[in-house]
Write a structure and sequence with these properties.
- GO terms for molecular function: ATP binding.
- Belongs to the ABC transporter superfamily.
- Its main location: membrane.
- The N terminus is likely disordered.
- By secondary structure, the protein is of the alpha+beta class.
- It has a six-stranded mixed β-sheet, with helices on both faces. The chain has a five-stranded antiparallel β-sheet with strand order 2-1-4-5-6, with helices on one face. It has a five-stranded antiparallel β-sheet with strand order 14-13-12-15-21, with no helix packed on it.
- It starts with 9 loop residues before the first helix and ends with a strand.
């Protein structure tokens, strides 16, 4: 049976949840957003990621209606809420927000906090909705408590319940787990995103943590200085970065300088294939530490490279080695579960050349 908020129009269901078109925003001399366009489909979990100051939070404020763009438009479910057609106030956008500090009202009980966003409902209906939300986040027994009586994880779950109570079309989450301990953060993030996927909620999730973005989003939007650098699935951004900025953001690489000649890059540790076939030019090869591994060989060959062990750090399930290799100016780092002899000074390594990334300089 179709619910009251579902449309019988199939074209409506194909309308994107959010369309941002050519957004511009400037604060003084700082260009916070510059010609930014993005489409988010219904039910997608999208991570906005980038270093501090890249424009992530500004973008959230414009989507929610807390701020307005200097140019461009915002459409939610096909309806323009900011742009040449006018401006829709935040309370009329059906957008929920979970803040980094949760922003719970200290003088209200947990149930009252959740009911705060339901003021247009009959009180009895609002209370029933609040109790449904408490049950959804498994905190029914906390309804009469005050925020200061809850742990950080419990406060985060209440903030989520409050944001979901008015049945928003889009949920914005601004680094909601950053104040929690690592182990609790990982588990709570998993539980929260699983719940939101089950509900079919469209989520825009802001983080500056690359690992969090890779493990959370259906789509990642990497930003820099108000621009979108690359958009795609987590695997696309990790495996096929469009530029050095994307590669550097999502992984710690070994960087090897070389020269492109006739479709390959010549380096001090051999050649790497590249698609570039133009004139000879300088380039860098990016190698992940996990794509260099110790070899069982005891001598160097065309497949193995001899390296001097400069440093080793034991990390429990793996060891990190710093290696000096031949004429390479910078040492190589590798991470391996293989344990070398405790007093070894030399290692023979193999390089997974198919996993290397090549960027022209």
């Amino acid at each position: 049976m179709m619910s009251a908020n579902q449309s019988t129009n199939p074209d409506h269901n194909r309308t994107p949840a959010l369309e941002l078109s050519h957004l511009h925003k400037k604060f003084g001399s700082t260009q916070a957003l510059s010609d930014l366009s993005l489409t988010i489909e219904r039910g997608e979990v999208v991570c906005l990621v980038g270093h501090s100051g890249c424009g992530k939070t500004t973008l959230l404020k414009i989507i929610s209606g807390v701020d307005s763009p200097d140019g461009g438009s915002v459409c939610i479910n096909g309806t323009q809420v900011a742009g040449h057609s006018g401006f829709v106030e935040p309370e009329n956008r059906k957008v929920g927000v979970v803040f980094q500090d949760y922003a719970l009202f200290p003088h209200l009980t947990i149930e009252q906090n959740i009911m705060f966003g339901l003021r247009k409902m009959v009180r009895a209906q609002a209370r029933n909705r609040a109790r449904d939300m408490l049950e959804l986040v498994n905190l029914t027994h906390m309804s009469d408590k005050y925020p200061h009586m809850l742990s950080g994880g419990e406060q985060q779950r209440i903030a989520l319940a409050r944001a979901l109570a008015p049945k928003p079309d889009i949920l914005l989450m601004d680094e909601p787990f950053s104040n929690l301990d690592r182990s609790l953060r990982d588990q709570l993030r998993h539980d929260t995103i699983s719940l939101l996927r089950k509900l079919g909620t469209t989520v825009v999730f802001v983080t500056h943590d690359a690992e969090e973005a890779l493990s959370t989003g259906d789509k990642i939007v990497l930003m820099r200085s108000g621009h979108i650098i690359q958009t795609g699935s987590p695997r696309e951004l990790y495996d096929k970065p469009c530029c050095r900025y994307t590669a550097d953001f999502f992984c710690d690489y070994n960087i090897i300088h070389g020269t492109i000649r006739s479709g390959q890059v010549d380096t001090a540790i051999g050649c790497f294939v590249t698609d570039y076939t133009g004139d000879e030019c300088p380039a860098v090869v990016y190698l992940r530490p996990c794509d260099i591994c110790p070899s069982a060989a005891e001598t160097a060959s065309e497949h193995t490279i001899s390296a001097h062990i400069q440093n080793r750090i034991f990390r429990g399930d793996m060891e990190e080695l710093t290696l000096k290799v031949g004429a390479l100016a910078e040492p190589l780092k590798l991470r391996t579960p293989m344990r070398l002899p405790a007093h070894a000074q030399t290692a023979y390594i193999e390089v997974n050349r198919d996993r290397a990334l090549v960027f022209k300089l």
